[in-house]
């Protein structure tokens, strides 16, 4: 009997987790792209041109038009769709591998390691090359194609490969791995904890929480990562933005960049863009989980519950 109970609480298949994450990513990208553009411009601003989030947004709109706030949307949406599919799917696979073979339970350490592994995988396979293209597009000012070096995502990728080699698309990979690994370890663990604490919902129990409940859990789970990984995000952006075709590089790597930024611009610069990250990531997680939980919750109730009868 106990064996049947264990079977009825099997986790959702990785492909369903991947599908739910990708659909949530599309919705997140469309809603929050302007915040990401502002965050990138603030992190790349060394001269103090922008006085804050609102000033940055209004300056971009006034000088470049409203459409400039959605610069890089195509690579951003594609990157989020693929990233969440890989993140959610690989996390499900890793969690299954870390579960106790006798009880089917997943320890806190197993959940953390699954999240970290999923973050590392998405950083290397998806996030780094897409963010390099996105950041190169976002740092360009103006909308006239003839005045821009990069005409679009594919042209940008081809130019980087031609001028800097294939590895140019993986500039800033080290801080991206550290940022994403830490973020996902914290996020998956916190989301599970908040679901149980606030809504008494546990994976496999067939309970479908409302979208607003998923949004609260996702929002809270998405707050810790940006604070902890701020320096990695700033360094990642700086490394990705610098072109290898322009001569000697200012930043030689992750540690050198951290040291250089600290010496030249001060400690707080390593958390530059934190507020727009907090304006983007927790709401982004709220939107993504609201979509993902509805899809996986429907699957649980429709298929897993029926299979256990």
From TrEMBL:
Its main location: mitochondrion. It holds the Pfam family Mito_carr. Keywords: Membrane, Mitochondrion, Repeat, Transmembrane, Transmembrane helix, Transport. The keyword Transport applies. The keyword Zinc-finger does not apply. InterPro entries: MCP_dom_sf, MCP_transmembrane, TXTP-like. It is a multi-pass membrane protein. GO terms for cellular component: mitochondrial membrane. Gene3D superfamilies: Mitochondrial carrier domain. It is found in: Mitochondrion membrane. Solcar repeats lie at residues 12-97, 109-197, 209-298. Belongs to the mitochondrial carrier (TC 2.A.29) family. This is Mitochondrial succinate-fumarate transporter 1.
């Amino acid at each position: 009997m106990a064996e049947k109970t264990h079977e009825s609480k099997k986790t959702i298949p990785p492909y369903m987790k991947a599908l739910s994450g990708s659909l949530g990513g599309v919705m997140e990208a469309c809603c929050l792209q302007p915040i990401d553009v502002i965050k990138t411009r603030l992190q790349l601003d060394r001269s103090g041109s922008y006085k804050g989030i609102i000033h940055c947004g209004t300056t971009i709109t006034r000088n470049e038009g409203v459409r400039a706030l959605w610069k890089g949307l195509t690579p951003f949406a594609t990157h989020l769709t693929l990233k969440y599919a890989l993140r959610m799917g690989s996390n499900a696979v890793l969690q299954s591998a870390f579960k106790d073979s006798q009880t089917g339970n997943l320890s806190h350490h197993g959940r953390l390691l699954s999240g970290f592994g999923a973050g590392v995988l998405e950083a290397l396979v998806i996030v780094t090359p897409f963010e390099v293209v996105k950041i190169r597009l976002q740092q360009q000012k103006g909308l006239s194609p003839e005045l821009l070096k990069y005409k679009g995502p594919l042209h940008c990728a081809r130019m980087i490969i031609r001028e800097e080699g294939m590895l140019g698309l993986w500039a800033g990979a080290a801080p991206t791995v550290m940022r994403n690994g830490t973020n996902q370890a914290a996020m998956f663990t916190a989301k599970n904890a908040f679901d149980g604490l606030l809504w008494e919902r546990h994976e496999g129990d067939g309970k479908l929480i409302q979208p607003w409940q998923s949004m609260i859990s996702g929002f809270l789970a998405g707050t810790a990562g940006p604070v902890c990984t701020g320096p990695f995000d700033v360094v990642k952006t700086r490394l990705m933005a610098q072109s290898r075709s322009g001569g000697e590089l200012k930043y030689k790597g992750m540690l050198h960049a951290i040291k250089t930024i600290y010496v030249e611009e001060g400690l707080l610069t390593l958390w530059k863009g934190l507020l727009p990250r907090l304006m983007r990531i927790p709401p982004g997680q709220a939107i993504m989980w609201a979509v993902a939980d509805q899809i996986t919750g429907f699957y649980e109730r429709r298929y897993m519950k029926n299979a256990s009868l």
